[in-house]
Amino acid sequence: MNPTNVNKQYLTFTDEVREAIEQGKPIVALETTIISHGMPYPQNIEMARKVEQIIRENGAVPATIGIMDGKIKIGLNEQELEAFATTKQVEKVSRRDFPYILSSGKIGATTVAATMIGAALAGIEVFATGGIGGVHREGETTMDISADLTELAQTNVAVVCAGAKSILDIGRTLEFLETNGVPVVGYKTDEFPSFYARESGYGVDFRLDEPAQVADVLLKKWELGLNGGAVIANPVPAESALEQENIEGVIQQALNEAKEQNVTGKKVTPFLLARVKELTGGRSLDTNIALVYHNAKVAAQIAVALKAPAQ
Ligand code: PSU
Ligand code: MN
Asked: Model ipTM?
């Protein structure tokens, strides 16, 4: 089913986003899980504000998406952004959780999967985040595979990210994407980045160096009726990157702790992110913030190119 046919009565828009949609302006969606579960306060609210500013500076309109009061909010005002940054009991919402959270009236932070759903309902084609979820290490036995991957298989939104974290099994994540027909574009890179690091040891499907080239590939995909998203993998800027060798030990320790403490289901990713941050003395958080800003810039450029008249 094409999600754009679904009833839109649950969507509410800020004036800025509503006008942008009406006027056909470029828009970039942003997620709220990264605010509520991906980073501590106050860095999360600073990041949430600045990422919106970067998108505006690059010619697009930001639309941070979250669930509140039984509505899917497309664009958040300052007060709402703060609620996602400071409220203790924000639910983490993926595709599975979406209908219950909407029904309950609870505050729900949207993951990559759920933000794609909201963006598609609103007609937004480009989304900037940090990293996508993926197949977890030992996923072949635990079956812990992020719903982000199955969402990318079906929902027409391009996700600009810094690849997938090496807390995941990157090889199997790429295999899953291939099976499901999700193009993985290396933006100015031949290697799939691993979030904190610019390298992973895995290649990309193809490399593109210009926003207009990315926009053209997306248009062709969707004009052909090949439903689904695309991963636009944009490596963290070199000056903010961590070395892959250095981070591996930290990741191993975090994974061992998660196992010992029986952390499962949707708690796994936030647990690992928080431990990696502690074990790197906060360096991983600086890297995380830097790569989100870079993704926002590239996403805005792609959104602008998508709206540019065909040559
Ligand atoms: N990666 C990050 N920060 C995050 C996430 C991933 O660096 O906050 C979040 C995203 O919202 C992503 C989600 O969609 O974790 C994946 O969770 P899971 O593995 O439970 O699907
Ligand atoms: Mn999972």
From this structure: 0.97
d(CA 135, CA 137): 7
Distance 311 CA to ligand 1 centre (A): 37
- The residue length of the chain stands at 311
Q: Which domains does the chain have, with CATH numbers?
A: 3-243+289-307 (3.40.1790.10)
* 3-state DSSP percent of the chain in helix, strand and coil, to 5: 50, 15, 35
* Cα 275 from Cα 282, distance rounded (Å): 10
Report residue 32 CA to chain centroid gap: 9
Catalytic residue status for 178: no
Whether ligand 1 lies within 6 angstroms of the CB of 133 is answered as: yes
Please report, in tens digits, the pLDDT of each residue of the chain (311 residues total): 344 445 689 999 999 999 999 999 999 999 999 999 999 999 999 999 999 999 999 999 999 999 999 999 999 999 999 999 999 999 999 999 999 999 999 999 999 999 999 999 999 999 999 999 999 999 999 999 999 999 999 999 999 999 999 899 999 999 999 999 999 999 999 999 999 999 999 999 999 999 999 999 999 999 999 999 999 999 999 999 998 888 889 999 999 999 999 999 999 999 999 999 999 999 999 999 999 999 999 999 999 999 996 65
pTM of the model: 0.96
Please work out whether the CB of residue 211 comes within 6 Å of at least one atom of ligand 1.
Answer: no
* Separation of CA 151 and ligand 2 centre (Å): 13
Coil, strand, or helix at residue 205?
Answer: coil
Is 147 assigned a ligand-binding role in the annotation? yes
31 noted as active-site residue: yes
